[in-house]
């Protein structure tokens, strides 16, 4: 049935005000949906016009961390059985037919760290498995209160497990080290198949319903489809714009798969794996990252999703946007060395049978593609052109003191090598980085570094930090506190000083006070106030509310705003004012008309009323500037500034998820240019755990035995359990056991002392033991 004929419509529901769902699951009849999160565990009935809450498992008291869920699964055979994987490692089984706390039927507390995923067997109603951060997979039988099997994945974390719909006892497991494993439930000691699928952590997997294909999604922004018949082979690769969080094959569509991202991208995309660069359809209703997706049974026209925006959506496929219909037929890409590739569509024409001519006047018939409906698409042909950047190109005229590189990649590499992120004071660091940015033509970045130096270079930030967006957010308390502080500080300043702010002596000030006694709202009670209608902020108030490092304009404890120096240095937005003389204008006698006015009459900032003044917030300005740098493609400057700020970064209103995305993007760019040391330094300076673990993934190298060729997985490093030999520990050149640095060939698994191999391969090209053509460099 064509998508456009569906009578379903998109519906949504806000499910939780305190938190969001991390996962969702459908029952076997596809009439109910379970959503689970750290503060949420509910079941909703799916209606034609919305969702109706039918059960809340977190409604009672005395709840613990076992209710805080990362994943939820519904039994494929029993609609009353649910399973959840909790953040404290607990795997719980729920029976919806029971009441109250009895709904939590079983609690398995066997994982040592967070449980990431849980799933039921497709044909055995009592079997479920779970994967954890501790690197183990547990198999549970709900007729027992303990696990029946434990599978060790030899990785730091298992992120997803799925039972194969094609083979009863087989399940797949994906790990953070980028590997995929296939296990036989009956053989717990060793996996059947293990291969590296991605360069980054793999977060999700899903089996194709009709073909023996396994789809995997990773943080490397790719979805890969593997043919699991025999030796695993890569069939298709889909390129996304962000790390992949979930994938789910579309029913009744062989080549369609849905996905959602971990960060940045809030949409749910449906891909045709034959066209890997642009989604077939997209659902853009969510306003935050999507955390779970599921197709409503065999209905390929209805997709359910939940998000960090605390909503669940039932998407109708007819309401999806079609990006391919708006896509440009041309494309361009910028290479890492400044070269540009351009591709355009080839217009194919078929000549008539009457004859062939190469002139423009001859008749040609355009070859039309047989496209049946909107479900299919036409695989067209294109041409590719490559343009290299001319070495003589200079972007714009430069002064003699500037040395802008001719190519863009040189600017990135130069800044990556010369920018400093630690080891100096912030002011010195900003000054150095500003010069480096200017040297490589990044003038906006240079200005930003100078700005950071001005506002953060001379101040000391100590926790706890408190972020204030603006004065406009603080209504009545702010105004009352400001008035109280000014009133309390003013008499003290007048009494302690021999001269007031306007240059008057105490006697002159008293005369002015008497002259203005009639205007005193307190009826001349003797309490002295600041000049009428003047806005005077105390130094204590400014230090508490704003971060300035230039207090030269403070006079006698108050910031006094006049038309000359202060007005140029500090700008107060939305302040409608007129500048008048502070001294009251007394009646002049006729004898005084010929006298010249006193020079340099001090002035104050006069306002007709005192509104809630929105003060300029430098922290928000810096945060917006960093996000702008990222938006224009300069994530390098945005992240280096954030690292350089140290603890002061906590003052900036930037979410950790966005910062994490910046780290991954910049590290990927550094790896692209083979700047390994710079990437490692950035990772080491990170304060986010997920980034700190980047250089700890895949650090173990598994060797093969040089005699039998089998992996050496025994407890003793160089001992092979298969052939009962330790020959691999010996150097193939000298025959002695290697102590120290060991080099080996991945082709034949023979190796030895690196010095001996260097000397040997300087004259030979084949392995000294087996004759294999080893490649040593």
TrEMBL record:
Belongs to the WD repeat WDR24 family. Residues 470-507 have a biased composition (Polar residues). InterPro entries: WD40/YVTN_repeat-like_dom_sf, WD40_repeat_CS, WD40_repeat_dom_sf, WD40_rpt, WDR24. PANTHER family: GATOR COMPLEX PROTEIN WDR24. The gene is Dana\GF22867. One of its GO terms (molecular function) is zinc ion binding. This is GATOR2 complex protein WDR24. GO terms for cellular component: cytosol; GATOR2 complex; vacuolar membrane. WD repeats lie at residues 108-150, 151-193, 195-229. The keyword Zinc applies. GO terms for biological process: cellular response to amino acid starvation; positive regulation of macroautophagy; positive regulation of TORC1 signaling. Keywords: Metal-binding, Repeat, WD repeat, Zinc, Zinc-finger. Residues 467-507 are annotated as: Disordered. It holds the Pfam family WD40. The keyword Oxidoreductase does not apply.
């Amino acid at each position: 049935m064509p998508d456009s004929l569906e009578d379903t419509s998109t519906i949504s529901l806000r499910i939780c005000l305190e938190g969001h769902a991390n996962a969702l699951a459908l029952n076997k009849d596809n009439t109910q949906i379970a959503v689970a999160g750290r503060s949420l565990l509910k079941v909703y009935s799916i209606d034609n016009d919305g969702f109706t809450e039918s059960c809340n498992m977190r409604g009672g008291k005395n709840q613990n961390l076992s209710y805080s869920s990362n994943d939820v699964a519904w039994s494929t055979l029993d609609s009353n059985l649910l399973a959840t994987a909790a953040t404290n490692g607990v795997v719980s089984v729920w029976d919806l037919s029971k009441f109250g706390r009895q709904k939590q039927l079983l609690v398995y507390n066997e994982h040592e760290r967070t449980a990431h995923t849980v799933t039921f067997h497709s044909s055995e109603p009592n079997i479920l498995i779970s994967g954890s951060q501790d690197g183990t997979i547990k198999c549970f039988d709900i007729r027992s209160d303990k696990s029946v099997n434990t599978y060790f994945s030899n990785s730091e974390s298992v992120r997803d497990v799925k039972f194969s719909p094609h083979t009863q006892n087989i399940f797949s497991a994906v790990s953070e080290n980028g590997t995929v494993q296939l296990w036989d439930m009956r053989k717990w000691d060793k996996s059947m198949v293990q291969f590296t699928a991605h360069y980054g952590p793999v977060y999700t997997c899903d089996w194709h319903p009709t073909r023996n294909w396994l789809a995997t999604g990773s943080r490397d922004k790719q979805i890969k489809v593997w043919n699991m018949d025999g030796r695993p082979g890569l069939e298709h690769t889909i390129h996304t714009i962000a790390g992949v969080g979930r994938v789910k094959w579309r029913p009744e569509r062989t080549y369609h798969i849905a996905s959602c991202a971990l960060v940045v991208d809030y949409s749910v995309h449906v891909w045709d794996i034959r066209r890997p660069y642009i989604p077939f359809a997209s659902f853009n209703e969510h306003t935050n990252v999507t955390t779970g997706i599921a197709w409503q049974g065999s209905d390929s026209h209805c997709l359910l999703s939940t998000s960090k925006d605390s909503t669940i959506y039932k998407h109708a496929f007819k309401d999806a946007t079609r990006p391919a219909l708006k896509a440009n037929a041309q494309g361009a890409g910028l290479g890492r060395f400044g070269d540009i590739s351009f591709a355009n569509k080839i217009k194919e024409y078929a000549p008539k049978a009457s004859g062939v001519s190469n002139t423009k006047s001859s008749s040609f018939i355009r070859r039309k593609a047989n496209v049946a409906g909107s479900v299919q698409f036409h695989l067209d042909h294109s041409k590719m052109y490559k343009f290299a950047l001319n070495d003589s190109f200079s972007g714009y005229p430069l002064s003699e003191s500037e040395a802008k590189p001719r190519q863009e990649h040189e600017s990135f590499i130069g800044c990556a090598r010369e920018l400093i992120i630690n080891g100096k004071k912030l002011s010195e660091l900003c000054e150095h980085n500003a010069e480096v940015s200017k040297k490589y033509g990044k003038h906006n970045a240079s200005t930003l570094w100078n700005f950071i130096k001005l506002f953060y270079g001379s101040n000391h930030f100590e926790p706890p930090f408190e972020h204030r967006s603006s004065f406009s957010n603080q209504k009545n308390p702010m105004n009352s506190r400001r008035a109280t502080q000014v009133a309390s500080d003013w008499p003290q300043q007048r009494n302690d000083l021999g001269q007031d702010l306007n240059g008057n002596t105490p006697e002159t000030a008293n005369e002015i006070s008497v002259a203005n006694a009639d205007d005193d709202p307190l009826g001349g009670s003797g309490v002295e106030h600041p000049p009428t209608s003047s806005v005077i902020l105390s130094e204590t108030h400014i230090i508490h509310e704003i971060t300035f490092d230039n207090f030269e304009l403070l006079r006698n404890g108050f910031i006094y705003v006049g038309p000359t120096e202060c007005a140029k240095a500090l700008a107060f937005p939305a302040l409608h004012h007129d500048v008048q003389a502070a001294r009251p204008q007394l009646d002049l006698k006729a004898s005084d008309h010929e006298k010249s006015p006193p020079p340099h009459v001090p002035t104050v900032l006069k306002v007709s009323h005192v509104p809630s003044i929105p003060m300029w917030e430098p922290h928000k300005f810096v945060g917006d500037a960093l996000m702008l740098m990222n938006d224009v493609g300069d994530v390098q400057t945005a992240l280096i500034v954030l690292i350089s700020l140290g603890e002061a970064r906590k003052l900036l209103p930037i979410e950790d998820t966005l910062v994490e995305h910046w780290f991954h993007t910049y590290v990927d760019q550094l790896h692209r240019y083979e700047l390994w040391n710079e990437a490692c330094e950035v990772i080491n300076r990170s304060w986010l755990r997920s980034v700190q673990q980047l250089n700890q993934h895949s650090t173990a190298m598994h060797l093969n035995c040089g005699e039998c060729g089998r992996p050496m997985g025994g407890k003793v490093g160089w001992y092979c359990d298969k052939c009962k030999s330790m020959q691999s520990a010996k150097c193939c050149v000298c025959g002695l056991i290697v102590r120290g640095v060991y080099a080996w060939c991945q082709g034949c698994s023979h190796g030895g002392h690196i010095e001996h191999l260097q000397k040997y391969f300087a004259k030979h090209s084949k392995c000294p033991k087996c004759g294999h053509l080893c490649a040593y460099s």
